[in-house]
Amino acid sequence: MTDTEIVRSDDPRIPQLEMAGYLMVAEPWGARLRLKTAGASSRTDTLGAAISGRTLHSLKVGWSGRSTILFAMVGVVLLAAAVPTLLIANPTEPLKFTVTGCLGLAMGMQAGSARHIGVKDVTTVVGALLLRIHIGAGMATAAAITLVVAALGHLGRPGRRTENYGRPAHSTS
After folding, report:
1. CA dihedral in degrees (151, 155, 156, 160; nearest 10)?
2. Which of 4, 32, 122, 125 is deepest in the core (most CB within 10 A)?
3. Separation CA 21–CA 44 (nearest Å)
4. What is the DSSP pairing of strand 30-35 with strand 22-27?
């Protein structure tokens, strides 16, 4: 596998390349995929992006029930990562590694899901004030915001009353 693959945005190999560890970098004419070889966070953010890409690739652009599930998962992962940082004063290296990996997974899923619904960029920085108070406070706040967005997106998605997820629609007459 080479370090860089240049493909068109409609190339059917994109999901397989992402699953193989390539990271998509969008460009106006297509996509450039680069293999990332950094630490836990960069590996898990690629996994998170692959999960959201695989989950949403067959759906048209926009919010769907699957988007709600993915954003809710992001919120839960952020909250789960925040809990040990709030409760443990001096975390061990394995715990730090796990929390970092969870944050990478959540941010990859969030970025992939956001791109699918048409958001160009997602700011993942929580206010410096919260981080000065405690890193766990910043993560917990990000989790709460993400869960609220998931709920609002679910309630406001187009056609939510008519979605049947592949099941035949029931007649009311």
Report:
1. 130
2. 32
3. 10
4. antiparallel
Helix (H, G, I), strand (E, B) or coil at 11: coil
pLDDT of amino acid 3: 63
> H or E element: which one contains 43?
helix 40-56
- How far is the C-alpha of 112 from the C-alpha of 24, rounded, in Å? 10
pLDDT digits (tens, 9 = 90+) for 20-64: 777 665 443 333 334 343 455 567 888 998 999 999 989 888 889
The pTM of this model reads: 0.66
Cα(53)–Cα(61) distance, integer angstroms: 12
| Residues 70-85: tens digit of each pLDDT | 999 999 999 999 999 8
- CA–CA distance, 168 with 7 (Å, rounded to integer): 38
